[in-house]
Amino acid sequence: MPRSPRASNDLVHHPVFSRAYAALSPLVDVRAGVAAHRRELLAGLSGRVIEIGAGNGLNFAYYPGTVSEVVAIEPERRLRRLAVEAAVRAGVPVDVVPGVAEALPVKSEAFDAAVLSMVLCSVRDVRRSLAELRRVVKPGGELRFFEHGRATGRILATVQRTLDASVWPALFGGCHTARDPLRSITAAGFETVTYRRLRVPESRVPLPASAFVLGTARRPAAGPEDPRSP
């Protein structure tokens, strides 16, 4: 895979979190209904797709046959090894590549669509990560997102901010609960096509990382006002 000059070797390593995530995420997919949301997230995609923060590759099984190739970026070494194993079982070609969201090791405007699935919470720089996605997606290309973030309720939002400023990121692989993915996607120059808010898992007591947004945005067609830098 050709690498851009901005590619970085500064990858992440969360040995405790990655081990726990690898063990628990398949169970959560089934018991919390996440698998159905993954299927909805990826339905109708076609052409070349880049997935950022592919984790252990749980999305791979849900890519439709109209996708010609998935380039899956994953910085964490343990999760990346598991993603490689999942890629072998996938129904479409999947190439798992080491890299970070802030410096994607791929050419500009090389993809028909991009996928974000529970990753903006943990990237080091949300703005730069989304600028990189805008760089690598073709004008008019899609951005599919399934992200958790800031709750709409005042009390839970306050709890999220408190956790983010204390122990939560250290315990959960750099995750932040109070980021606003929808606002960040719009600020990065993507046009929101459709989205809906949901709670995962559906429980009487909302959890800090249970406020999700699932939707589609689009990179506008190139024009004279098209910003090309972060």
UniProtKB/TrEMBL annotation:
Q: Where is the Methyltransferase type domain?
A: 51-144
SUPFAM superfamilies per the UniProt record, alphabetical: S-adenosyl-L-methionine-dependent methyltransferases
Query: Keywords for this entry?
Result: Methyltransferase, Transferase
Q: Name one Pfam family in it.
A: Methyltransf_11
One annotated GO molecular function is:
S-adenosylmethionine-dependent methyltransferase activity
User: In its keyword annotation, does this UniProt entry include Nucleus?
Assistant: no
InterPro entries with a match to the protein in the record: Methyltransf_11, SAM-dependent_MTases_sf, Thiol_S-MT
Put simply, this protein is called SAM-dependent methyltransferase
